[in-house]
Amino acid sequence: MTGPVIGGTSRRTFISLLGAGAAAAAGGATLTGCSNGGSGSSTTGRAETEDKLSGLLPKYIPYESVKPDLPGENGASPGYSHYPAELKRAVPDKMVPSGKEVTAMTPLWSPIPPLAGNSYFEANNERIGAPVKFNILNGNDYGDKLGPILAAGNVPELLCIPGWNISSLTRFGQAADKLFEDLTPHLAGDKVSAYPMLANLPTRAWAYGVWNSQLKAVPFPSDGFPWMLMYRKDILDQLGAEPPKNSDDLLALGKQLTDAKAGRWAFGSVADEVHRAFGVPGGWIKDSGGKLVNKIETPQFEEAVAFIRRLFQSGYVHPEVVANAGADENALFEGGKFLIRQNGPGGWHESLQRQQTANPKFNPQPVMPFAHDGGTPITWGGDPAGIFTFVKKGLGEERVKELLGVMNYTAAPFGTEEYQLYNYGVEGKHYTKQPSGAPKLTALGQKEVSQTYIFLGGRPTAITESEYPGYVESMSAWQNASAKVREKNLFDGIRVEQPAKMAALNQPFDDALQDIYRGRKPISELKTAVKQWQDNGGNEGREFYAKVLSDNGR
Description:
alpha+beta
């Protein structure tokens, strides 16, 4: 992306990366790139075009397990509306021949599954060839835990880090140089052929795993959709309500859906999607005079903030969200306590998984992109990768090969035995096949299966969850519509590492914004917060980004 996370909700943004078939980068987040020479310092920032990194990157060797039923358009993911009758075995050998336990740290945005005596873990570990000892942390707190862990140097063999957490860490380049293995000798060019599933990851995603002129991480490819606005179609149908097509509709829905006596409110968090609907850019844009302008400096942003504040002040936002900007919204939305929220695309099918037994009528659907005035909307895009998995430095060549083998296993795409196993477990134990061939989790599967192995490395994006009737078709339609109106990225094809000073600006601005929304500060404080952002490093950042564009003839 092309700027800092400003006014975003980065603690929730990672939800958009959940799920094997839907990964997205945080709206407005800059993923760090090549740092300043050998020092590993990211103090002043650096940018480099992706094509200059080609010598470090793996050769793309496609692997097609099954053809998509619904090809993606304009960069949207392909859709698979049914499960293949036969699955391919993509990784025939055990990836960890030594059998030595693998340590890994990953996030999770749902209840942590039992780690001992879990037959889902046992089945995957048997195929991998060694037990994976997970340290699973609550996703909402993940960024807070990373700084101390990196500072202490006490990292596991495999460490998953989301890109916007990286952009909030000063001098991450130094930490990467000190703590993580250079994977270039193992994966660059034809060397990646030893790991066919990793070779199937797109080249542009690999470019975002480079720090200090070294390939430092395996990327989690992204289709670039940070958010979608979801609504409870099952309940709106009961109430005779329709999804919004402009901001007036959104306000009217607030009044129609909110019934405090019944314990029901219209909205959870919707701020980023309101920004988008008001035409707020995803990061930096150029004004009519060619000057770079950040999203928070635009009149659209000011309009959107005033509108969001109005939703709060009207009492249409659920009280738990009003009281706590970090509230866990899954249970509230799934319980019908509020009916409209923004969520990462991957969160949709995960909610269906949680509710398919408890509430078969549960039917969340996406709101098609709309503009606040009913005109042509825009959607935000993201970088080709949004999550990264690093290998601890100094383990020796043979151990690095084994750890890359683990990620080769978790990179297996839809249509393979491995994908089925790390997503659903063992047939007959963790899931059964529906008449369509799609898996349905058993009671044991609901308890033991979780999105853990997916965070050990990425796989090509795809829409695959046909076990939920209509899901693939609906998600495919939404993605194709969203991709069609995705705004142009000024920095497309340029790997940017923001100056470290800008990382410190994100949280204070977001804190001020949350107070303005909730009426704890007057709307006039927005100008003050923007001025502080400019004076404390935003204007320096503008000069840096302007030079990046100038150096690249833009």
